[in-house]
Structures are given as C-alpha cells and as structure tokens.
User: Which sequence fits this backbone?
C-alpha cells in the first residue's frame, strides 16, 4: 500500500511510517506479511470456526460432498459410460481426483469473494490485504484433511497400498494450494472492481472441473498433448495424487512439471496484480 | 526530529465522482472504452485540439500540511465533507493519498473501527482475540490484557456466548474495550463516525482524555466544539479539503464558528447569491423581550424576531419566503416556508421592504447557528437564497437558575417543571 519505507529510529525504536502515493507495480512486502502472521492465523481460524456453524451435519459435509460426487461419477461415468480408469477401481480413481479438486474449488470460491466480503474491514483498518484471500484458501485445509481421511478409508477398503511415491503427496497438495491462491488473488482483486466475477466463478469452477482429468484419466491423450494438458495446473495435481497414492502406472512427470510452472506463473502474476490494485480497494470496494 | 509524531506535507486525495459509491461492471468499462474511442475519433475528424475532460474528479483533500508534536492533542474540525475522515483514513493507511506525503512515528490506533471484524457467530472471547489481531495486537499482548478488557466491557458472564446473542450495548462495550486497550502511540478518533448512545460517546471521550493525559498523541475529529476546546491544545480547521486555520484550539473553534456561518458569502455581499430582481440586503436577529433586550441575538424562552431587508427592482405580484436554522453539525432544527405556514405575503413592492419572521419563545439552547433565508416566485423557483448567516442565541437562565448550553441538548423547553405528587395517585 502506501508505505514505502519502514525504518526504525535507533534512539527510541519507534517505527517511522512514511505514507505517500505509490505508482505502478509495487513490491509484495512479504516481510510485512510475515509480521502479520498472527492475523493470518486468526482469520483462517475464524473461517474454519464459522464454516459449519448453524448446520445440522456440520463437518460431515466435508466428507459427504466428495463421497456423493464419487458415487454419482462411478454410476454414470464408471458404469454406464465405461470410462477407463488407468486400471484402478473407478470409485477410488475418481475420489483421488475429487479430494484435491474440492480443496481447490473451495479455495477459489472463498478467496474470490473474500475481499468484497471483508469490505468493512478494508475500509477501516490497515493490514496487509494479502492475508484475506490467503486465509480463505488456508481454511479449506481442514475440509481437505477430512476428505483425505475418507480417501484413506476407501483405499483400505479397496486394498490399495501406496508406495514410496506417497512421500510426494505434500508437494502435490502445495501445488493445489498455490494454484487456488494464484487464481484467487486474480479473481479477488478483479472482483473489487468488477462484480461480474461473482457470476463468473461458479461457471468457471464447473468448466474447469470438466477440463481437469477427474472423471477420466489424462492418459487418454497422446504425447505431446498430455504434457500440454499440464498447463491446466489442476491436471498435474489430480494426476499427481493418483500417482502418489494409488500408484497409477502412467507416470505423469512432464505433465506435472508443466503444471508446476503454470501455477507458479499464475501465483506470481496474481500477487503482483493484487498488490497493484490494493491501493484502490478501500475506495472502490 | 524526535518530538514530531506526525508530519503531513502537501497531502491530497482525489476521488472520481461516483466511483466510491458504486462499483463498475465489465459492461461499464466496455461502454466507457467505446465512448472514449468514439470521442477520440471524433476529435481526429474535427481536428479540434481540445481534449474533453475524461471524468469528473473532486479533491477530498488538497495541499494539507501540518505537524503534530508528540503528546499533543490535535483537533480537526470542519463541516461535513470537509475531508476530515479522508485525512484520518490516509493517516491510518486505509487509503492512499494522491499526492504529498505524511510521516507517522509510532503505532497508530484508531477508535474509528470500533467493532469492525467482529464475527456474530464467534464468542466474546474469540472475538477479542480476532479483533485484537486485526487491530495489530500480538497474541501475547491480548492474552495479557484479556481480563482487563473483559472487566472494562462488563461482559464477564457472557464471554463464552456468541456475540450475536449480545445486546447492542454489550456488543459496543466489548468492541470499544478491545480498541481502547490497543495502547497506540498515536490515537485517531473520529467522533463523527462514533456510534452509540451519549453514555458510550462520553466513555470514548473519557478514554481519549486518559490517553492524552499519558502523553500520547491524539488526533480528534469532532463537531463538538466544547469537547475540542476542553481536550485539544491545538486544532486545524478544514474547509473543502484545505486547511484554512491552524493554531490554538480556542482560536480554531472561534474561527470555525465564524466561518461556518460565513463560509459561503462574504460579509456585505448578500446580493451575490441572488440572480433575479430581488436582493436580500441585510439580516439581523433580535430579542423582543427577556432580561436583556438584544439587537444581535435571540434569547431562549423569549420571543425573538429575524428581520430581513429586501430590495426589489420591480413589483412582484406573488412570492413566498422561507428559512432554515441549522446547527454547526448541519442538523436542521427548523425549516419553514410561508406557504406551509398558510401565510400569504401578498405582493412585493418595488424598493425596500422588511420581512419579519417572529419566533415565539425561542426554543434553542444558547450557541451559534446557521440561518438560511430564501425567496421563491409563484412557480417555487428560487429568486434569492442566502446561506449560512450567523444566528446567535444568547446565554440566558432558561430554567430559572442555571445557564445551559449544548450539553443540555439543542432544544430548550421553557417552563418545563417537575413536582412530586403525594400521596401517589392511582394511575389505573
């Protein structure tokens, strides 16, 4: 935002804050974000606490949603359409894709509306605005953990044993997180100025889901198209999860590399765009 | 350098009109883009070098400079829309200036965000931590002050109840307690935005005085001139985004009271407000009775008159007149037209005539008010309107013994009485 230099006067150690107009692209000020890590913690914690308030089923929703989707997918795509599943039982094949996907979809939804939803905060208090979309993506981690437990239970049920590749799992989770945050940063900042985003997001999530190999394997595509498919970062995440957990034979190396690159680009550009727009948030939101 | 807490140099903030209130849709941008393109092409075609203004802008603040020393309490006064709140927003870094700069030494806290960030579903305890973190407190710091905050807010019994079940009073007390325990080096207070009842506002002011007493710096935005005079050592007066006075609080208040009733017109230039054939030449208020018959002010509880000298170039067959009386806070106390009174003023003759408005038993407490007077033709178009003429209501013992001022409200009720009826009658 407006602060360009934050130095400490040696004598009395009071921070001196200089407020002046900023121009063009500004630094991300990650150090300040780090100083506000407790706020990030509390905002995330608030989102988690509030998420299932006044619901009957509560956190069971986090398990029910992927489970029901899996059942529907297995019936229609697995049984009726006989879509191949890389030699795995179809239910677990689709669930391994749905679990990271729902984390992504939730993070995308929440973060894109996060700034507008926190308008009263933005208009009255200063703090690094990046904490707002960041916390809404982070809050999805709890739902992910519950859904992941379901996935583990299903693996036990089907007798699927993960190999050493499971060690890669945190990396794929991080990839999903980075992608959700990157897109979330873009959309949340755009949403402040253009409320069209509110209507775009549900459509985008739906469209993106069909563009991601959840109901079908990416191995349907021949190379080099499969690697190119990785430019959809969620393709990398889903295939990564399947490879790491279920030991799908089709090793998705190049596809995941493409995904990692794409999601990093989205995150970095998103963060800079967000910071550039940040100075107008309080006036426009 | 170390004794300056806040330094502001040439600060300005420009808003695009309409932009703050409504948000843009993609369609707006497309439409505007198309319009701009058409305009540009038209500009080429007509080979006219002039550029049409793109968008209308207003400067909410312009070229504002001042300094605040450590431990000083600076009052910021001005009418609605003078830029006071914008200034505080810039200093609290909520919004960015368009030009100029400011330097702030020390942690800034403000009482303008009381209760922001409270979540209704969370308990009092949880909200204290959340709100504290939003205001910039560390978790350890909140934990240390937790008991104090709860005691101050008087919500011990309900601390583990979601705040959506709180009464609005409890909610406010808790929110204020958190903000009040931030212990910033620099405190920003916007009384205009402060919500709550009189008792709560008094509490705010009390806390502010306390903070000032501890030698910390306070910026105080207020319409309450009495409070500014008591609490502030210095003050600046903002008018239309610019500093028009800076100096001692007494002087600033006097300047403000003077300027708010004279801000639109220069003395003696009443005529400038009138484009038609009628002019308002002069205006005075006088008391028609009471202990001191005054020719310059109204006395509460006694009949008063406002006399307006009119000068017309020709005879008007029909016209109506009206007036309004407002406080320094832009609160309209009275607004009336002769039509509503059912008064037909008849024709306005050529030359001078005196319009007399009588106010029986003037119901305003002592202070300075703004009088606006207007004349309308038969189609209710303004013939003439003079805004913000100073109207003084003198000190007088309205209720028998004591002198009252704005602290006792804006409306005086002469003759109000109390008695004890014994034995108590049966009211059913």
Assistant:
């Amino acid at each position: 935002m407006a602060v360009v230099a934050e130095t400490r006067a040696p004598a009395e150690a009071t921070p001196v804050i200089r407020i002046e107009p900023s121009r063009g692209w500004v630094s991300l000020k990650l150090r300040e974000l780090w100083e506000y890590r407790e706020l990030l913690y509390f905002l995330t914690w608030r989102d988690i606490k509030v998420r299932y308030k006044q619901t009957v089923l509560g956190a069971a929703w986090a398990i029910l949603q992927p489970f029901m989707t899996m059942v529907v997918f297995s019936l229609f795509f697995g049984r009726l359409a006989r879509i191949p599943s890389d030699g795995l039982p179809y239910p677990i094949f689709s669930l391994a894709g749905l679990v990271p996907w729902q984390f992504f979809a939730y993070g995308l939804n929440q973060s894109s509306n996060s700034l507008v939803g926190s308008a009263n905060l933005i208009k009255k208090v200063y703090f690094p605005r990046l904490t707002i979309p960041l916390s809404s993506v982070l809050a999805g981690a709890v739902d992910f953990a519950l859904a992941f437990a379901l996935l583990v239970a299903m693996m036990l049920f089907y007798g699927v044993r993960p190999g050493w590749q499971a060690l890669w799992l945190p990396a794929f989770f991080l990839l999903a997180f980075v992608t959700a945050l990157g897109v979330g940063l873009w959309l949340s900042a755009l949403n402040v100025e253009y409320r069209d985003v509110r209507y775009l997001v549900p459509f985008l999530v739906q469209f993106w889901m069909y563009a991601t190999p959840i109901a079908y394997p990416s191995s349907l595509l021949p190379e080099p198209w499969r690697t190119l498919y990785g430019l959809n970062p969620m393709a990398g995440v889903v295939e990564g999860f399947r490879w790491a957990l279920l030991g799908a034979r089709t090793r998705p190396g190049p596809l995941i590399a493409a995904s990692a690159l794409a999601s990093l680009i989205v995150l970095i550009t998103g963060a800079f765009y967000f910071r550039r727009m940040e100075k107008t948030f309080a006036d426009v939101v | 350098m170390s004794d300056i807490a806040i330094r502001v140099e040439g600060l300005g903030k420009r808003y695009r009109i309409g932009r703050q209130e409504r948000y843009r849709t993609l369609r707006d941008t497309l439409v505007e883009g198309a319009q701009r393109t058409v305009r540009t092409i038209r500009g080429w075609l007509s080979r006219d070098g002039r550029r049409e203004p793109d968008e209308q802008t207003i400067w909410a603040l312009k070229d504002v400079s001042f300094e605040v020393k450590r431990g000083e309490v600076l009052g910021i006064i001005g009418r609605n829309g003078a830029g006071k709140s914008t200034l505080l927003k810039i200093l609290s870094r909520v919004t960015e200036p368009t030009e100029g700069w400011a330097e702030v030494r020390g942690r800034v806290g403000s009482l303008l965000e009381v209760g922001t960030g409270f979540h209704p579903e969370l308990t009092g305890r949880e909200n204290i931590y959340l709100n504290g973190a939003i205001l910039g407190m560390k978790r350890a710091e909140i934990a240390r002050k937790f008991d104090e905050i709860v005691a101050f807010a008087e919500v011990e019994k309900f601390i583990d109840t979601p705040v959506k079940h709180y009464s609005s009073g409890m909610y406010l007390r808790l929110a204020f307690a958190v903000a009040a325990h931030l212990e910033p080096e620099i405190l920003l207070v916007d009384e205009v935005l402060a919500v709550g009842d009189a008792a709560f506002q008094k509490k705010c002011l009390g806390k502010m005085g306390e903070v000032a007493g501890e030698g910390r710096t306070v910026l105080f935005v207020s319409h309450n001139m009495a409070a500014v005079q008591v609490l502030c050592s210095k003050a600046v007066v903002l008018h239309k985004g610019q500093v028009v006075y800076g100096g001692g609080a007494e002087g600033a208040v006097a300047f403000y009271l003077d300027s708010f009733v004279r801000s639109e017109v220069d003395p003696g230039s009443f005529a400038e407000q009138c484009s038609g054939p009628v002019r308002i030449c002069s205006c005075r208020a006088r008391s028609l009775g009471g202990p001191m018959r005054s020719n310059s002010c109204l006395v509460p509880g006694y009949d008063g008159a406002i006399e307006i000298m009119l000068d017309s170039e020709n005879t008007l067959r029909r016209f109506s007149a009206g007036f309004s009386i407002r406080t320094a806070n832009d609160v309209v106390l009275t607004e009336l037209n002769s039509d509503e009174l059912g008064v037909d003023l008849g024709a306005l003759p050529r030359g001078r005539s005196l319009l007399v408005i009588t106010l029986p038993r003037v119901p305003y407490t002592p202070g300075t008010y703004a009088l606006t007077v207007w004349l309308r033709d038969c189609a209710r178009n303004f013939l003439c309107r003079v805004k913000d003429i100073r109207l003084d209501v003198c000190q007088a013992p309205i209720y028998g013994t004591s002198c009252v001022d704005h602290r006792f409200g804006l409306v005086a009720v002469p003759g109000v009485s109390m008695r004890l009826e014994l034995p108590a009658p049966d009211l059913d």
